[in-house]
Amino acid sequence: MPKKKTGQRKKAEKARARQKLMRTQRSNIDLINHPSNVAMECVNCGRRQKNRAFCYFCQSLQRLPICCHCGKQKCTGKHGDCLVKHRAAHVCGMAMVGAICDFCEAWVCHGLNCISVHACECPLQDSTCIECERSLEEHGGRIFSCAYCQHMLCEDDQFEHQASCQRLEAESYKCPSCNRLGSNTCLRCKVTFCDEHAKRKGVKYDKGKAFPCPKCGHPLTDSYNLSMSTRNYEYGRQRLATSDSEDSSSEAESDSENDDTEEESELEESHEVVCDMEQLHLNA
């Protein structure tokens, strides 16, 4: 008979399942339209930025704050979960807020659900840009997610990163384990695997879902549906050859210019000598 599970083990399994569900929900969040990442225009300086409790540029307080979890600007009190009881029909402004999120730096309303859940479900917990490595505190723009590798990107680097994201960190499309052409690509590791090494032994896979990467666990993508490219190296001898050819061409041009100037000076001297001889002949 199997051993009976203790209460502590049951709690640990429930917590593990809850954390896994939160991670899957966080990966499926529409980051562009999420209330913690919506565009906001400052009342004082008029600059556009991400939804924040205070302006990133002038540090001024906004007149109508937006809740970063439910997205509302006024509380009607219909749900009855308000931690701050208000007799009025609805409240807005500073009477509606209850806390500031440490991750997205935006206001959270005084509703019990928003305050107790938002910190665990905030999609901007790991909001460091993969290109410039700036966190949310170091720039005032919005956060975007790459459509290929799902890495976080700032507003300045999103287009440059996605334009060069479909490039492998190798010189060919071969599998690193068996040196055969691979058809399953991990867009995070930038490595292509064959059908045999894309699966790990002893691991059960769900039907109808993409295989996870053996290295990082990111879902693999079919290489035939992507416009993948390989990395090209510019070797030192090629650069030296081009520089030598450029130097030789510049030297040849300078030599030809010097020859032209010498010929012109010689022609001028001979012309002066001829003129002097003609003048002497006329005087004689």
TrEMBL record:
<dbReference type="InterPro" id="IPR010531">
    <property type="entry name" value="NOA36"/>
</dbReference>
<dbReference type="GO" id="GO:0005730">
    <property type="term" value="C:nucleolus"/>
</dbReference>
<keyword id="KW-0479">Metal-binding</keyword>
<keyword id="KW-0863">Zinc-finger</keyword>
<feature type="compositionally biased region" description="Acidic residues">
    <location>
        <begin position="244"/>
        <end position="267"/>
    </location>
</feature>
<feature type="region of interest" description="Disordered">
    <location>
        <begin position="238"/>
        <end position="275"/>
    </location>
</feature>
<comment type="similarity">
    <text>Belongs to the NOA36 family.</text>
</comment>
<protein>
    <submittedName>
        <fullName>Zinc finger protein</fullName>
    </submittedName>
</protein>
<dbReference type="GO" id="GO:0008270">
    <property type="term" value="F:zinc ion binding"/>
</dbReference>
<keyword id="KW-0862">Zinc</keyword>
<keyword id="KW-0677">Repeat</keyword>
<dbReference type="Pfam" id="PF06524">
    <property type="entry name" value="NOA36"/>
</dbReference>
<keyword id="KW-0539">Nucleus</keyword>
